[in-house]
Amino acid sequence: MSEPQLMYSSKINKIRSFALILVFLGIGLMYIGLLFKKTEWAMVIFFILGILAIVFSTVVYFWIGMLSTKAIPIICPSCEKPTKMLGRVDACMHCKQPLTMDKDLEGKEFDEKYNSRKYKREEKKK
Ligand SMILES: [Zn+2]
């Protein structure tokens, strides 16, 4: 098990940085491909991998766009900047303030588990 994280970044930000990493990875792979100019097959493989990473990042960016339309825009109570929430619990994009849509969870310690289907199912049983 990993150590409990103290700082939570908002989900949209997390996915966005993941997509950004993918873009750099793609460019990096293509750059490595250039170093293999003499070995044609290696160059082609690195180029294809690079293009795949970039295509995948485009898909992820598109997905963020879809998620953003579903996210609920709110004003963060802590820094008073507009942010977006995904799921029952999320963190502010600006100040990482944990936020919840559920009155029952207010005041409780921030936990990603509140978003999981398993938790919701268990709560319904009660
Ligand atoms: Zn905030």
Automatic annotation (TrEMBL):
Pfam family, one: DUF2614
Keyword match Transmembrane: yes
Bilayer disposition of the protein: Multi-pass membrane protein
Protein location: Cell membrane
Cellular component, GO annotation: plasma membrane
Keyword terms, alphabetized: Cell membrane, Membrane, Transmembrane, Transmembrane helix
Membrane-spanning ranges: 17-36, 42-64
Family stated for the protein in its record: Belongs to the UPF0295 family.
The name this protein goes by in its record: UPF0295 protein GCM10008025_35110
Protein source organism: Ornithinibacillus halotolerans
